[in-house]
Design a protein that fits this description.
elongated; mainly alpha; 206 residues; 73% helix
Length: 206
C-alpha cells in the first residue's frame, strides 16, 4: 500500500523552514532552493505545493498567525492580570518565537519596495488586530463598556507597543531578555488601563 502523505503537514513544514531561512539570511537571500534544501525536499517538491516564493511567505505568515492564536488561547487566564499573561505569549521570549519575530521584521523591511507585499501586510494586520481585540475583550471585560474610540486607541497603542518590543528584541536580544520584555509590557498595560479609565470618565468619544 502506498504511503499516505499528509499534505497540510508538509506545507506547514516548508513554511516553518521558510521562517527560519528568512530569519537567518534575510528576505532577499532566502531563496526557494535554500528553503527546499533546508526542508529536505527538492525544489520540484516545493514547487508542487507553492507556485512562488511569495506563496511560501504567505503560508509562513498564516502559520505564524495560527501558532500565535493557539498560544494566546492556551495562556492561563486566572492570573492577577490575565491580559499580561496572555500577551506575553506574543513576545519573542524563547527560541521559536524569536525566529518567528525575526521573520516578521525581515518581512516588514521589504514592504516599501513591493506593492504586493503591502497588500499582503494589510491582510496580516487585520488578522493580527482581530487576535488582540479578542484578547482585550476577554481579559479586560471592563473594556467592553469603554467608548469605541477609547477601545480603538488602546488596541492601536497595544499593537504598536508589541511591534516595538518585537523589533527591539530581534535587533538587540542581549538588551531585551524575556524578563525585560514582560516587565515593559506590564508597565505599558498599566498606563493604558489607567488612561482608558480616565478617558471613559471624561467622556472621550473620538
Amino acid at each position: 500500500m502506498p504511503k499516505r502523505v499528509d499534505h497540510a503537514r508538509r506545507r506547514d513544514e516548508i513554511a516553518l523552514v521558510a521562517c527560519r531561512a528568512v530569519a537567518q539570511r534575510g528576505f532577499a537571500r532566502a531563496t526557494v532552493a535554500q528553503i527546499a534544501r533546508a526542508a529536505g525536499y527538492t525544489t520540484g517538491m516545493v514547487a508542487y505545493y507553492f507556485d512562488s516564493k511569495q506563496e511560501i511567505i504567505l503560508a509562513a505568515l498564516r502559520l505564524i498567525l495560527r501558532r500565535m492564536d493557539q498560544r494566546l488561547q492556551r495562556a492561563p487566564a486566572a492570573a492577577r492580570d490575565g491580559l499580561l499573561e496572555v500577551l506575553t505569549e506574543a513576545l519573542p521570549i524563547d527560541a521559536q518565537r524569536r525566529i518567528e519575530c525575526a521573520f516578521w521584521t525581515a518581512f516588514w523591511g521589504q514592504l516599501s519596495a513591493d506593492p504586493r507585499l503591502k497588500r499582503l501586510n494589510a491582510w496580516v494586520h487585520r488578522e493580527y488586530r482581530k487576535l488582540f481585540e479578542r484578547c482585550l475583550a476577554e481579559q479586560w471585560p471592563e473594556s467592553r463598556s469603554w467608548p469605541a474610540a477609547v477601545r480603538g486607541q488602546v488596541l492601536r497603542s497595544l499593537i504598536t507597543f508589541l511591534n516595538g518590543i518585537t523589533t527591539s528584541a530581534v535587533s538587540s536580544p542581549r538588551d531585551w531578555p524575556a524578563r525585560v520584555q514582560v516587565r515593559q509590557l506590564e508597565l505599558h498595560l498599566g498606563l493604558l488601563r489607567n488612561w482608558a479609565r480616565s478617558a471613559t470618565q471624561a467622556g472621550i468619544t473620538e
